[in-house]
Amino acid sequence: MLTYKVEPKGAVSPGISTCQGCMIDVIFRNALDVLGEDTVLVVPPGCAAQFSGCGPEASVTVAGIQGNLENSAAIASGIANGYKHQGNDHTTICVIAGDGGTVDIGLQSLSGAMERNENILYICYDNEAYMNTGVQGSSSTPLAASTTTTPAGKPVNSKDLFRICMAHNIPYAATASIANIPDFRRKVQKAKDIRGCRVIHIMSPCPTGWGYKSAKTVEVAREAINSGAWLLLEYENGRLTISKKPTALGQVESYVRMQKRFKGASDEAIAALSAHVCERYTYMEKLTQIMA
Length: 292
Fold this sequence. Notes:
Layout: H1 24-35, E1 39-42, E2 63-65, H2 72-86, E3 92-98, H3 100-104, H4 107-116, E4 121-126, H5 161-167, E5 172-177, H6 181-192, E6 198-203, H7 207-210, H8 217-227, E7 232-236, E8 239-244, H9 253-256, H10 267-290
Parallel strand pairs: 1-2, 1-3, 3-4, 4-6, 5-6
Antiparallel strand pairs: 5-7, 7-8
Helix pairs in contact: 1-6, 2-4
């Protein structure tokens, strides 16, 4: 029998450790490529759990820990303070957690870390539901989207994590998308170079939970940016900027019809989602002028 040895390149081992069409693997590879080996990961249970730690069962070569779903920011804060007392001011403490462990169960822990301005980088990969446990709805699930706990479509809009981060007045917060990796890498590099609490919220569509062909992940994410359903934003030292303006603001019809989770959404629900998208963009655009 022939055997082959594949030498790892970078901090993530070769091969795909996620579902076909999922971009969490790409997020980890690019984030760790920018952050480098002098990084400690905190990854809660979820879709990215296989990236926790550096043992033979993990996919990464950097040190890491998997705690509980609700306390990632607290664990990262403890590690950061431990390093601080040791005189270590160079190691990056990075949380990479899903939306369920961030905007829902882990929000209290993250809010505390932001309030204290802990020296951590928190990356939330957002697939807009609890995908690892059966596609239950989360606070990131958008209006009218169907999940196993909102089979008739979610009746309310999603929670705005970016504005929550802004309200804590942390030194850096940004949104990103797997449809624009150069933008994501630039923001990770900027976050790496800043001290204090930094948060990057990146959209990561899920073929299984959203209901589209796995080859269409980047296309779906790009359509979200074009319609304004996902905004690319940056908040730094009290100033807000829009990284890329939507090319077809509010035109969410083509975006939602690409996904089975919106199959049962009525025309009225889609119109309400479109109105919300436009209102949020207008609000953020006004804020850029006020905060200039």
